[in-house]
Amino acid sequence: MKILITGVTGFVGSHMVEYLLGKEDVKIHGLRRWRSRLDNINHLIDNIVLEECDIRDATSVYNMIKRVKPDRIFHLAAQSFVPTSWHAPEETISTNMIGNLNIYEAVRNLEINPLIQVACSSEEYGMVYPAEVPIKETNPLRPLSPYGVSKVGQDMLSYQYYMSYKLNVVRTRGFNHTGPRRGEVFVCSNFAKQIVDIEKGKKTPIIKVGNLEAKRDFTDVRDMVNAYWLALEKGLPGEAYNICSGKAYSIREILDLLLSMSKTRITVEEDPARLRPSDVPILLGDNSKFRKQTGWEPTIPFEKTLRDILDYWRDQT
Ligand code: A2R
Ligand code: GDD
Q1: In a mutational test of the pocket of ligand 1, which residue from 76, 121, 184 has the highest number of ligand atoms less than 8 Å from its CB?
Q2: pLDDT (mean) for 264-282
């Protein structure tokens, strides 16, 4: 089976490759841009056929998909950081929506019909009211960032291409996920790296934070890639599924957990630059639709995930 992973050089892409290495008879193709950093996949490089492609370029995407003719696509490539979507809204919309469109158009014009998982996001739900949690797939979408809007765009394009052309797309609405190799700008990884930098004496003992009141539903990335696989094995094309743990922590609770895992004394300081023009107050998901359809269960406790992130940063020089 030929599998194409867009975003293979990213956080989830690298874990997807590790997960797929446990399967038989899979040949993994992964997208890279000419300047992509390969740090996340250097240890896996012998197991991937790297394909140069920029998803914003329709010719590049068409030629790459024609070359690979994948049986399955995990579409993970994106501008994935919410704050950057305010600084670079056009790039975010272009990469996420037009990049996704280019993939569907290439698949359609080549008259192939791979199973496609598309990484949509809980950020699509955006403004969620207290009576609406835990969030079901039927909840209204009220995105609060250009990133959230771009993911609604991907989600709706996927639905439309399924309805219009029967493209076999399964929409996974991933809630927050984290683990080793998480980009250092994202909250758990960022706090963990600051703590480790303080432990190593590289930084004064002050941890900078943004909005600690937001609540998020975290899943370990290793459970997440298992869910993405099951979405294609057992999920229904055209459907959208929440992938989440069903438990929410405030960011303050996460900070306290991480601090409790270090012996170093650390002061907490709010950094106004880390506050967003609008922040989604709570994302707590209902995963019952996906569990019922696929039998998926998250298996890794959040405390272990946080310890693994700290250890990951402690191992970096
Ligand atoms: O930045 P690069 O060259 O290493 O590649 C990133 C890739 N990417 C692109 N690939 C091709 N053409 C583009 N124009 C393009 N722009 C970005 O997407 C990288 O391999 C990946 C993003 O990795 P991360 O930022 O680590 O995201 P993560 O956490 O793996 O997110 C996976 C998916 C995304 O769709 C998120 O929006 C969703 O899960 O939450
Ligand atoms: N990054 C960051 N840094 N976030 C902070 C900080 C900080 O210093 N302090 C508090 N936060 C809060 C943010 O305001 C937000 O409410 C929460 O922590 C999580 O922020 P991120 O880790 O940056 O993730 P995100 O929720 O914006 O987006 C992630 O999850 C989405 C799924 O819900 C990304 O992985 C997206 O790509 C993904 O779609």
Answers
A1: 76
A2: 95
